[in-house]
Design brief:
2 copies of one chain form a homodimer. Chain A has 200 residues and is of the alpha+beta class. The first copy, chain A, has a single domain, classed as Glutaredoxin, CATH 3.40.30. Chain A has 10 helices and 4 strands. The first copy, chain A, has a 4-stranded mixed sheet with strand order 2-1-3-4, sandwiched between helices. The interface between A and B is medium-sized, with 29 and 29 residues.
């Protein structure tokens, strides 16, 4: 079987959220699975010098409008969170902890976390919300709380961010298909063509 | 009749070139015309602090690859110019001078200029090439050469760049449809939906 796609995203990235709502179905259409890899844009941006879109001089307003318009265009529910962007290390660390125990639980947590933030406007930077969402997927709340406070899980996320940078990932979302890098939710049509044709 | 779309671009912008090969046909499908408006990214970037994509730390290589892949995806001939990006004030000024005399001549010049640079790899920063391309569309070469050396045409391009900034334009290509701003060649599907539905 062909290798899974790799899907890199930050839990505070609107375009990452939009891609997250499509990528599994898109890959499945071509018999492929997807390996989800949350990263921290703050870490990637230290390498690239980039700033969050809405904090960029002059053009922040455009992107706020484009987030919502792109969501409508793609038919995905979206409500711009009042507090944006937020710190997402708790959500990302929780994802990896869940993933090491049960892939499906981690995936369900990721969907729930993105929707909590970008549909329901809940504060995903809060450890309590992260623990609640994980527990709702069947995770052991106390064990996760302990893991989130420990160094190994922090090191794990750091290593994942470094590995992403080594693969050339600099933003969210980024999709790798057999080594080919696609950046942006707006590149999903190219990802689909690539899967369909094996490269173009 | 509905107002024309406005199409802002820099003659050195790969995504601007890709959009230029589609925008007239796209608009015509919905009974609309397009007002082409070359600008200088150098002037816009002074406002926004942006840098040319291929000079951005870490991610320049990705964009070089994406230019060519996006062209193949869109079915448009493209060859990455060795000298990139280039200064495009001569081409942009020539466009406005031609435009004031004959819309159609300016449009044909714009197509020819983009293709000379992004298909044939010719040096569009050269005044001689700009004059040759304009003359090929039927322009008076000597009169254009004189105009390019004068202050009024310089002021004209400066005013066009300032007017673009006032409308919120910060990059190339940007398309305005009845006041709605779309940035990027990858937003053309949204432009089409907007034209089709009157907004979404």
């Amino acid at each position: 079987m062909a290798e899974p796609l790799e899907f890199y995203f930050d839990f505070s990235s609107p375009y990452g959220y939009l891609a997250s709502e499509c990528i599994d179905e898109l890959a499945a259409k071509y018999g492929r699975k997807v390996r989800w890899r949350p990263v921290l844009l703050g870490v990637l941006f230290r390498e690239t010098g980039a700033v969050p879109l809405t904090q960029a001089p002059f053009k922040g307003g455009y992107f706020l409008r484009d987030f919502e318009r792109s969501a409508r265009f793609m038919g995905i529910p979206y409500a711009q969170p009042a507090n944006f962007p937020i710190a997402t290390q708790n959500a990302a660390r929780a994802y990896y902890w869940l993933h090491d125990q049960h892939h499906g639980m981690a995936r369900r947590f990721a969907y729930a976390a993105y929707r909590a933030y970008f549909v329901d406007g809940r504060d995903l930077s809060s450890v309590d919300l992260v623990l609640d969402l994980a527990a709702q997927q069947g995770a052991d709340r106390a064990a996760l709380a302990e893991a989130l406070a420990g160094q190994p899980l922090k090191d794990r996320l750091k290593a994942e961010c470094e590995a992403a940078l080594k693969k050339g990932v600099f933003g969210s979302p980024t999709v790798l298909v057999d080594g080919e890098i696609f950046f942006g939710a707006d590149r999903l049509p190219q990802v689909e063509r690539w899967l369909e044709t094996g490269g173009f």
